Amino acid sequence: MNRRHFVKSCGLGAFLAASGVNLFAAENDRPNILWLTSEDNSPYLGCYGDENAKTPNLDKLGCNGVRFRNAFANAPVCSVARSTLITGMYASSLGLQNHRSSVEIPRGLKTYGELLQQAGYYCTNNKKTDYNFPWSDRNVWDKSSWNAHYKNKPAGNPFMAVFNTTISHEGQITDARVKQRRDKGLIPKTPRLGLSEVKLPPYYPDTEEIRYNVAVYYDNMTLMDKWIGDKLEELKKSGEAENTIIFYYGDHGGALPRGKRNIHDSGTRVPFIVYFPEKWKHLAPVEPGQWCEDVVTFADFPATVLSLAGVKPPENYEGRAFLGKYKQPKRDYAYLYRNRMDERYDAVRAVRTEKWRYIRNFSPHRPWGQQYGYPFRVQNIMGLWYEQYKQGKCSWQEARYWQKKPGREMYFIPDDPHEMNNLAYSVEYVSKQRELEEKLKNEIVKTRDTGFIPEGMFEGLAEKYGTIYDFAQSKDYQIQRIAEIAEIASDGDPEKMAVLEMASGDKCPIIRYWAATGYLILGKKARPHIQTIQKLLKDESLDVRIPAAETLLRFGENSEAAETLKDACHAENYYHRLAAANSVQLLFLEGFMDKAKTLSLMQNLPEKKAGGPDWVNKICSQIKST
Predict the structure, then answer these.
(1) Which of 70, 246, 336, 537 would you label with 523, given CA atoms 20 to 30 Å apart?
(2) Does residue 323 share a domain with residue 457?
(3) Interatomic CA distance for residues 55 and 224, integer angstroms
(4) Can you tell me whether residue 287 is helix, strand or coil?
(5) Does some domain include residue 182?
(6) Whole-prediction pTM value?
(7) Which residues, in sequence order, are bridge partners of residue 359?
């Protein structure tokens, strides 16, 4: 959107002011706070300069409010991002970094909803929660349902209300859902954008089918924008507009491939607009319509909403209030994390400053574009892109998503917004790389990041310590030493195998796990240490035996290693089964085991006892259909 059209769209202030509220009524001494959240969208908005977008309501909101240029979800997927949004703490500090889990957190850690209710706010959520931990027995909300609404608040109470829409979610771009919306007249019968008008990022193959799918998604974005307009109209009619601060944000990066689940800007950078009515404009960091360049993250949102309400954020909150009474100095960078996404394991950490992103891939032996079942099922574009790759039709820019990752990545965002030119190994930027690496290491240790603990160990640790958080806060969690070994392991450097050998005999099973993973990352280069790997195959911890078995099977036929994976696929602990199933499938896909041998390891798999998708049996089905 150009500046002339942006300024022309700026009618929201007068629109909301028309509600005619008494600005200085006694009950309005504290602001109401309204959060409008859309799912799975990067800054695909006209007011963020996206030429594909048609989002008039959000453009008006941006013109009259403050647009944050550097706002980030700490994790690129809903449940993990929402863990941080509700707790004010990094999901990786709490053991909540794995997508779709149900890990307990200490009762003494209070959500912002609980604290606001104690301060007299009426707090509602409509309706998505997906917080990744059991919360129903906590007093998080006065009301959380499809009917939850600020209009039901007691007279004189300020409100905090969250409304969430799934209109822009990746699950809404299936052929069936698109047809349904077209039949109802919600989106055009053919895409609003002509195929030649669609602006593609450089990592997508340029085909008509891919252009079409991108165009359809932008129709969904326009429909989402209409929902925003409806919510703003509702606020105006309620008479609460001039005492209500509005947050609009996406819950993480976009639904299109290489967005959601990925730690680059396309997966973590979000649109974030804050509107201040006249009474509360003194709280704005810049003038209406201007950009705020400060780095803010979801970890900061709970502290900020408490600060706006005049409530001091608790000491355990890891975010910083960027508005209100308890506003803190701005942060230098965002801390970002990615671990298991759906059924696929990974371990990635990153820091993002205003201009730089530094990524540490602790699982460089796995590609960015793993074979996630759900997005391949709901996103036509994912399958189209992968087929182009398999047929050898992709340029290097388009192919790298499907290939193994480098151990380190570093990008200068102003010159490289799509993060294609990795500067991490350039001698010209050694000092910058070291500076960012130090920030990342410090954050890992300071927050006692639990993402280095294999998920299969969670149950036993929680039984012993109460929660994963409690274990991580204890002296038994040797985070600095663990992070050092994980770094050496992920370097994939044969010259450092002596360190892995020493780590393989450590008393700490987490350190032994990273030693075994280091050998797996080295692949055939680890063969000189085959005796050490064979010892790891007999380790008391199944989490250690699984990567050791995969490594030995990549060397060639090994009946003991195969039996280890078979046993792991049938283990009592579901996350042992899932880790093993991933290893087995990759050995098959990469040609280390034939189909008959692979399926023999996965016969008669147990059913998952707890709720949620049974990814292990789904992986087995994928192998059968390949």
Answers:
(1) 336
(2) no
(3) 8
(4) coil
(5) yes
(6) 0.95
(7) 350, 409
